[in-house]
């Protein structure tokens, strides 16, 4: 029997996750009154129910009864019921944007602005986040990327660490990404920009990546970066960090940074972490010229 409580910030993707789990065979119930959770758990764990996988959606829409949730979860543990908590997180800026796009009001904002409701919700959910087995920050995730994470945890049963890593290439002339946690400058490497046949290509093209990686310094940089990240990542996880943005920059964000971002992503993908690569400025040079 696998019992999963899906919770987190309103607008972070809880409804989407419940649909994903339902598609994989989970019996899903959303927004059950807090007072009924104990009885519901008892019924689903009953051998006569023949239910093997359950996902229960819980959030602040439960109103005043939500304050009882911590006590209910403690009671479930005391009675020997095993459950997992999946907490969906997102930045306040992203959540505000999502609410504006859907033109829905936040359940806690009342007559206040949406961001006030979000911060209040964050406070009310803090105890759940501390108890969570899995924390997924959906701020930068596409639906297919979120589904891949859900499948990894609840379908494939792969080891999961509460840290999603984004390797981001960028061009210094367009500014350092504001959400960067770590920034690395690879402008010390030979620049394909000055090779006529390589200039119109990008680091995603083999001739450019071969040219950049031909430099001995490129491999040494990757070795040192991989070693440092292998040390830092477990410590970030221990401290509760759930999203890490590693930015790698060159002048225009088209050749060297793209090549190195792809290369370190390939190396990190061998480790038990969720890693994706993004190239922020790869097309900007072409757009400016046009």
TrEMBL record:
Gene3D superfamilies the record matches = P-loop containing nucleotide triphosphate hydrolases
Q: Which UniProt keywords apply?
A: ATP-binding, GTP-binding, Nucleotide-binding
Q: Which residues bind GTP?
A: 59-62
- Occurrences of domain RapZ C-terminal (ranges): 165-283
Per UniProt, ATP binds at 8-15
Q: Where are the transmembrane segments?
A: none
- Which one Pfam family would you cite for this protein? PapZ_C
* InterPro entries (alphabetical): P-loop_NTPase, RapZ-like, RapZ-like_N, RapZ_C
Provide the RapZ-like N-terminal domain boundaries: 1-155
UniProt GO MF annotations: ATP binding; GTP binding
User: What is the protein's given name?
Assistant: Nucleotide-binding protein
- Origin species, per record, is Anaeromicropila herbilytica
The opening ranks of the lineage are: Bacteria, Bacillati, Bacillota, Clostridia, Lachnospirales
